[in-house]
Amino acid sequence: MAGTSRSAPRQAAAWLWLLAAGLGQAQSPPTLAPIQVTGSLLPAPLESSAADVVVIDRATIERLQPPSVAALLRRVPGLHLDRGDGAGGVSSLYLRGADPNYTLVLVDGVRMNDPGNSRGGAFDFNELDASEIERIEIVRGPLSALYGADAMAGAIHIITRAPQAGARGRVEISSRGSHALQAGMGLNDTYGLHLGRREFADTRLGSGRLDSASANARWVFGDADELRLDLRHGERHDRGFPEDSGSFRHALLRALERRESEQWNAAAAWQHLPAQGLGYRLRLDAWQRDAVEISPGVAPGLRDPFGLPASRLATDSDRQRVQALLHHRQAHHALSVGIEAQREQGAMRGRLDFGSFEMPTDFSQRRDNRAWFAEWQYRPGPEWSWLLGLRQDRGDDGDTVSSPRLGLTYRSAEQARGAHLSWGKGYKLPSLFALGHPLIGNPALRPEFSRSVSGGVQQGFADGLAELRFDAFSSEYRDAIDFDPGPPPRLVNRSQLRTRGVEFGLTLHPRENLQTLLSLSHVHSRVSETGAAPRSRPAFTAHLGLHWQPALRHELSAELLHVGRQRDSSIPTGDRDLPEYSRVDLRWQRRLDPHWRLEVAVDNLFDRHYEEYIGAPVAGRALRLAVAAQF
Known about the structure:
By secondary structure, the chain is mainly beta. About 5% of the residues lie in helices and about 55% in strands. It has a single domain (about 5-30, about 50-630), classed as TonB-dependent receptor, beta-barrel domain (Maltoporin, Chain A). The strands form five sheets. It has a 22-stranded antiparallel β-barrel. A five-stranded mixed sheet has the order 3-8-9-6-7. A two-stranded antiparallel sheet has the order 1-2.
């Protein structure tokens, strides 16, 4: 990797701070409407949520116009993504040092984790387009008391664009040859439709195309009744180097892997939730994903003297869920109880090509799960809130898993002060791939478990012109599923992972048209048996952002991202440490008239050269131009 100077990012950071501190006389920040988040069984205001929640709203997405969802999520403390450029790679998310398959991902409340894939159910964030998203809620900490399996480290809830009367469109081109098209329309704030296509140019690392379409409808009856329907379809087509191959710089086999996927998710929910008294909610949702992967394999190397055989795999997975909830709210108490039934299925048809012979990898698995859950919230006064949650899941084998959760929240609006403390347990069922794969699958696998405690404080200063936040956490993951080379080779429960860390955030609002955000996080992750750091988990990350509106029609945003040293591994190279890196991205927007907007973005402004994972040089500086319209 090129040893470029670090002075440019440091100068940029200093410039952002000086600009934030020195532009004119301080003014009151704008007043924002309260944000309702889903960190509990029912939506609650963000400031009173017992969960540790970070929200990325539509205004932030419009301001940044990121080239990928991964680029948007990297600004969240304690969260790291790799392979986030969207071009031919699978983007994995590491929440507070946990494995990617320990985080539950939902779109409009529908579970998106694929139980039939080879990554233990981890979600690929390159299958989402930021243009279709209304907001993202990142809830950190075990949430099995709320969602059941998979939410061991937390949950990412993605809400698609809300119905909005009128029509909108956007066209973007990039100096790298990529382009994007988006269009949407709404009728009477009741019906909404969004269409999008993002195509990534053919680069050294690969190419890709993402098509997305979503439709939703929302009917409100009186003050307490609502019916909502959501439907989404996505297609992904990729060409890139296989994982663990060493990518462009080290892969001995130069043929690219081809990946194609198509998925549907749909949901219908009816709720009657009055401000006081008895309410209810009924929900049905379904998800389906079909994928094909054709790989040339990986040649033998330093880490594996056998390499990986060529393969052709087709997977089909689907899930259906029904949920019923009763809720009773009084002045100081709120009690929610509910039941849920879920069925998920996964199947694979494929072959591994060892040269002289082929081995089939066909399997088909199905499982049912039933659960009951309850949550009690107690507010003795306007400042304090207690939360107690419990869920019990029962599977086909008759075994039950209990997931408790406790939370305490303090918030003083007059003193702009707050604190929260939470504890909980999480669990994850073995993926259907891990149970049924004929070569490495193990039907005797047990669930994985976690427990975590976290707490934090917030303090406002100067009449709301600044806010300081500090969080700390400690988590343990046990009975983790790992690969045992054997003989015979198979997946087993044997690993234990411990993570702990701190997160720091500072928001400055010196003027109404100026905002500066700083976040720092340090995460210590270790595999208990070996004491080694797991892959793709930098200990230190930092983000500095500036948003400035110097005139009514102009907006400027600047983002500085720093990622510390991290361990990675590939078959040809073995384990390696990737050096730290920093990059700066700029965005400028000009509103031409009430309907038209011009956008200019410069990604990787100082042309930094680094690797997010072994053998994959990140593309240098790029210019993106876009025109957007709304009527």
